[in-house]
Amino acid sequence: MASQGELISSVRVILWIYRILGLSRENNQSVRYRIYRWVLNIPFLFAYLFAMIISALHEENSEILWKDTIFIILTEASMFVKVVTTYCRFQDTFQLLQTSVSEEFSPRCPCEQERHRRVLRHLNGALMGYLTVSVITACSTAIHIFEGMHKLPTFSWFFGVPYGPDHGLNYLLIASYQVSGMVMHCALNVSGDIQITYLLAIAGIQLDFLKRRFEDLKEDYLVHLQRRNLIHHNRHMQLVEQFVQDIERVYSPATFTQFCVSAITICATAFRISSIDIRENAGVAIGMMMYLLSMTVEIYLPCYYGNEITRKSQRLTNALYSCEWYRFDSETRRTVKMLMIRTNKPMMLKAGRFFQYSLDTFGTTLNSAYSLFAVLQNTLVDSGKQGQP
């Protein structure tokens, strides 16, 4: 793969996260690292998720389940699919990252260089901010340790080990384990989001380059330059199309799972916030609000940049038509016509062949979350009225 120094800092950070947390599958790994991977993942991935699921089955009623557990379980389910996808498709992911900094995807002129630098600078700032806020949100679960109520940060059951005022050491060890596990899982979850967002943004930049290069064909007055540049642009478009298809193929299961659980996760998080007395539990309320923000951004990023790919690919046909094709020779005009027919169908990514990466999907998800939240609130109000004498 290309040097990591060529990647933006947020992507370099997630590669280090994968290496530290045992998901790296680079060639020629040492036996020590493979042992380290399993020693880390068995207690902090498999045992953690198993305890969380069993804890959900021990909840007393559905209201407690929605307030305390369901939003975490759904986020963990999405994280688990992302982890499995990253582990099983690690070489494919590295190949995509290599392509993103390859010579074929490099800007050619000062204008393209400035565009490339500006977009990646803004993207890197947004992704680093997303990573920072998400990790801080995960760390905020440690607030429960200092409240003195002996309530565990994430799930209430832990393999039957007693904890509470009479077992203070047990409580401290289990709570510390849950907080550290939540931070690790948050880092893995966000790393998958950063990875796919970066690759989608790269595809969008390349479509910007193609649009400009198609329009600049009118400046080539020599026939051999027209043909050579058109052939090169056609080859570049094929590379971009293949790049987008590979992104969809590699990340489709993870993104599909994310879209499936997002509405319920956002609803459950908002439901819990509505049940918290902000004056008495300001720290918990702020942490939950940050969690809600992270969950919203988590689905917004692929929807926005996927929507940009569709929108920018739709502009290629007009760019080709604007290149003064009528001045070209007959063979070059035929090539332009074939390209225009080809670009008439915009690039659209789908998760699981069902959810489209678009802002419409983002809006639909938020509408579904709000509708479910309203149903839950009305159900609680009705049940409260029935319980009154």
Question: What can you tell me about this protein's structure?
Answer:
The protein is mostly helical and 389 residues long. The protein has one domain (9-377). It has helices spanning 9-20, 31-57, 62-88, 90-100, 110-139, 143-146, 168-215, 223-274, 282-314, 316-321, 330-343, 359-387, and strands at 350-351, 355-356. The protein has a two-stranded antiparallel sheet. Helix 1 packs antiparallel against helix 7 (168-215) and helix 5 runs antiparallel to helix 7. It is elongated and about 90 Å long.
Number of domains: 1
Radius of gyration: 25 Å
Class based on secondary structure composition and strand pairing: mainly alpha
Instruction: Return the average pLDDT rounded to an integer.
Output: 84
Enumerate the spans where pLDDT stays under 50 for 5 or more consecutive residues. Answer: none
Strand order of the largest sheet: 1-2
List how many beta strands DSSP finds: 2
How many strands, which pairing sense, and closed or not: the largest β-sheet? 2 strands, antiparallel
* Share of helix, binned: over 70%
How are helices and strands ordered from N to C? HHHHHHHHHHHEEH
Through-space gap between termini:
70 Å
- Beta-strand portion reads under 5%
Give the overall form: elongated
